[in-house]
Amino acid sequence: MRTADAVSPGNYPWVMTTALITGSTAGIGAAFARRLAADGHNLVLVARDTKRLREQATELHDRHGIEAEVLTADLAEDAGIESVTARLADRKNPVDLLVNNAGFGNKGHFLDVPMADELRMLKVHCEAVLRLTAAAADAMRERGRGGVVNVASVAAFVPRGTYGASKAWVVQFTQGAARDLAGSGVRLMALAPGFVRTEFHERAGMGTDNIPGWMWLDADKLVSAALADLARGKTLSVPDPRYKVLTGLAKVAPRGLLGGITSKTGRKYGPQ
User: Fold this and answer.
1) Bridge-based pairing state of the strands 97-100 and 146-151
2) What is the reported pLDDT for 16?
3) What pLDDT score was predicted for residue 159?
4) Cβ–Cβ < 8 Å for 41, 94
5) CB count in 10 Å sphere of residue 209
6) Gap between the Cα atoms of 80 and 75, Å rounded
7) Which residues of the chain fall below pLDDT 70?
8) Pairing of β 18-22 and β 97-100
9) What domains can you pick out in the chain, each with its CATH number?
10) pLDDT digit string (tens) for 208-233?
11) Which of 50, 80, 84, 214 has the fewest CB atoms within 10 Å, i.e. the most exposed one?
12) What is the pLDDT of residue 217?
């Protein structure tokens, strides 16, 4: 494996051998797995579906000659979180890059969504991200190198109910932790994509016909931009000029206006 001294996508500011990706079997997580495997890095693939994980691991191993470990875990459950934190804490088989990608959307407005589903979302988007980041960063700090990418959303910057609030937490937590770990050799970055063509919206029961074509992003290009931003030392990556403009406008536009616009385009599920 190589040490990166440039900021081109696929290069890293440390020697990297193994990356762990949650939610690896679909969408942005699968794009990270493809890219990192193509770059020659071993993987720990985490998701709930063992069959899909094994198929993914076999494909990436056969195509790129890398080692792909399978870890079945439901991050909405304590047992699932604990199994992944244990793997991240393994000093004999260290993880050099953690990608916290697992997540989902709930269908419906606030008070229409069962409270159990709202709490499950917070478990996956917030508690799991907190505990996995802590486990990974602790081990990485001992070695003086490593990185964590926490996948948020541009929904973090606009009024979007529980989904947007949870992703806003991811952004604030990641940037705060990055500040605390400055100089340790451990880099933390929040990734805030917009609408990406993945299984995310179908699983949430979200119709996408009302979303303009220009708002859709390609998952593989998004990952390339994110890895370049990580190499540059950014703590927040909004990997597309269109969404950079939109997030900039979100800082100055009235929140009531933004809430009305985003509810029409995203139906309160949130981009990803």
Assistant:
1) parallel
2) 77
3) 77
4) no
5) 4
6) 5
7) 1-14, 197-216, 241, 243, 245-272
8) parallel
9) 18-266 (3.40.50.720)
10) 556 655 565 799 999 999 999 999 99
11) 214
12) 78
Nearest to 36 by CA among 94, 88, 97: 97
**Which one-letter DSSP state was computed for residue 25?**
T
Beta bridge partners of 186: 146
How remote is the C-alpha of 234 from its chain's centroid?
15
Q: What global pTM score does this model have?
A: 0.85
DSSP per residue over 184-235, as a string? TTEEEEEE---EESSSHHHHTT---TTS-GGGEE-HHHHHHHHHHHHHHT-S
Helix (H, G, I), strand (E, B) or coil at 148: strand
Q: DSSP for 152-195?
A: --GGGGS--HHHHHHHHHHHHHHHHHHHHTTTTTEEEEEE---E
Between CA 152 and CA 192 the distance in angstroms is 5
Model pLDDT, residue 260: 47
Residues 36-59 as b/e (b if ≥16 CB within 10 A, e otherwise) read bbebebbbbbbbbeeebbeebbee
Q: Is 12 a catalytic residue?
A: no
* Residue carrying structure tokens 């486990």: 135
pLDDT at 48: 97
Q: Label residue 151 exposed, middle or buried (CB < 10 Å: 0-12, 13-18, 19+).
A: buried
Half-sphere exposure of 229 (CA within 13 A, CB side): 22
H and E: helices and strands count for the chain? 10, 9
